[in-house]
Amino acid sequence: MRIDLHSHSTASDGTEPPAEVVRRARQAGLDVLALTDHDTVAGLAEAEAALPDGLTLVAGMEMSCARDGLSIHLLAYLFDPADPELSTECARGRESRDSRGRLTVERLNALGVPITWEQVTALAGDAPVGRPHIARAMVAAGVIDDPAQAFTEEWIGGGGRAFVRRYAPDPVTAVRMVRAAGGVPVLAHPKAAQRGRTVSDALIAELAGAGLFGVEIDHADHDDAARAHLRGLAAELGLAATGSSDDHGDLTGHRLGAHTTDPEVYERMVAQATGATPVRRV
User: Fold this and answer.
1) pTM for the whole thing?
2) What domains can you pick out in the chain, each with its CATH number?
3) Residue 271 CA to chain centroid, in angstroms?
């Protein structure tokens, strides 16, 4: 089985609708795909309705968390989407994205970047506004050539001239919320140094103690040294090792299936979930 546990659609900051994401997943030879849009499950119904034969869909979400100013992402799988505490927390996160986006645009305008909030929301559609939408607006305005260029200190990268922090829960709180909702939490790309998101080993150990299931190790943002280190740490802490594409469509070069998760790890994850079950069309 080929299993990809991290992907995005236009329900957050991906460039393709959920129906197209699942179609491409099957075309890429995947047997299992988790749709993990940021702080929302809004794309899951469309993905399930369009699910091609032979593909299993895992309901998921990528929660934005923070500790001491460090942005930390948590992948949540197979939780109860109606859980009131988790739903309220995610709604608060989406509202914070909106206010952060507006202020970011204002700061970019002050720096001479000719984009408007209306242009950004047009790119986002019905999804919460994320920094990738702002980056795409900057490309359209001719300020930068590629969205990746926006995520620097010059523009909207962490600590950048137009960077704005937003609300996010502590990751320990998020892990416990996901578990309470019957879900299974996995720490996303914890050693992505180029993103400015290097999570300390001490914090990973703390999250393991709070109920973390696993760590996303095989990821495009981890080099060989980071992967080797994380495998050793995961083994020491009793955490599962996952692999995923973190595909965002055009933004990441359509890389569904670029990294995958071992079927045994996937089966253990499903066995621990009590909030939802994978959906398969045969």
Assistant:
1) 0.90
2) 3-90+183-280 (3.20.20.140)
3) 22
